[in-house]
Amino acid sequence: MVDKESANGASGAPNAPAAPGADSAPGASGAPGTPAAGTSQEADPAAPAPKRVRRGAIVAAVIVAVVLVAGIGAWVWHEQPSFCNAICHSPMDKYVETYGAGDPGMLVTQHAAAGDTCLSCHEAEFATQVSEAMAWVSDSYPMDEATGMLATGKEFATEEFCARSGCHSMDEVVAGTWGFEGNDEKYNPHSSHQDYALECGDCHKVHEKSTLVCNECHALTAPEGWEAPNE
């Protein structure tokens, strides 16, 4: 007779151990931490961004900062006299030299002392700068060989330009120049028998020696550094 316990052990009783690895096979149901077949696992939104993305953002921010700082620096330099002849040596060298020369006979000296720069008078209008650049590239700007400056300078200093809003007031100029430089009170170069036939630039030279045109007929004391007519 066969023993019952021996028979149970020989027939694969429920207590028999499972085959090795059977419960860890891929996709096996009930395996801990393993998604069932056909399902997707979403990324954790709280997980940190990849380092590559962070590095790219930093590089982009640095590039933007460098471009911004360079742009600000270029604009500040653009407003300085040294910018004017950094490339355009002709015709700008002479103008920049006189800006810092300190010559009392040139109006640029008074303007510089007041803190004015080139752009205080020569406004940076886009259309004007484009036309100036084209004239410089094509070498088609008129030069005065005797002075080394533009031949059109005298056309610039008109009463309309100099007495515009924010600059000079002709009423104040006239009121303040009776008996100028110790001359008789009856003399005023800004209110004379010329009846405003003269323009500002006929006497006042910004980058050249100023000239007292009145002394073509009179013998008046001229401001310091000024020249007599035809001198």
From TrEMBL:
<feature type="domain" description="Tetrahaem cytochrome">
    <location>
        <begin position="111"/>
        <end position="218"/>
    </location>
</feature>
<keyword id="KW-0472">Membrane</keyword>
<keyword id="KW-0813">Transport</keyword>
<keyword id="KW-0479">Metal-binding</keyword>
<dbReference type="GO" id="GO:0046872">
    <property type="term" value="F:metal ion binding"/>
</dbReference>
<dbReference type="GO" id="GO:0030313">
    <property type="term" value="C:cell envelope"/>
</dbReference>
<protein>
    <recommendedName>
        <fullName>Tetrahaem cytochrome domain-containing protein</fullName>
    </recommendedName>
</protein>
<dbReference type="InterPro" id="IPR036280">
    <property type="entry name" value="Multihaem_cyt_sf"/>
</dbReference>
<feature type="compositionally biased region" description="Low complexity">
    <location>
        <begin position="7"/>
        <end position="40"/>
    </location>
</feature>
<keyword id="KW-0249">Electron transport</keyword>
<keyword id="KW-1133">Transmembrane helix</keyword>
<dbReference type="Pfam" id="PF14537">
    <property type="entry name" value="Cytochrom_c3_2"/>
</dbReference>
<keyword id="KW-0812">Transmembrane</keyword>
<keyword id="KW-0349">Heme</keyword>
<feature type="region of interest" description="Disordered">
    <location>
        <begin position="1"/>
        <end position="49"/>
    </location>
</feature>
<dbReference type="InterPro" id="IPR012286">
    <property type="entry name" value="Tetrahaem_cytochrome"/>
</dbReference>
<keyword id="KW-0408">Iron</keyword>
<feature type="transmembrane region" description="Helical">
    <location>
        <begin position="57"/>
        <end position="77"/>
    </location>
</feature>
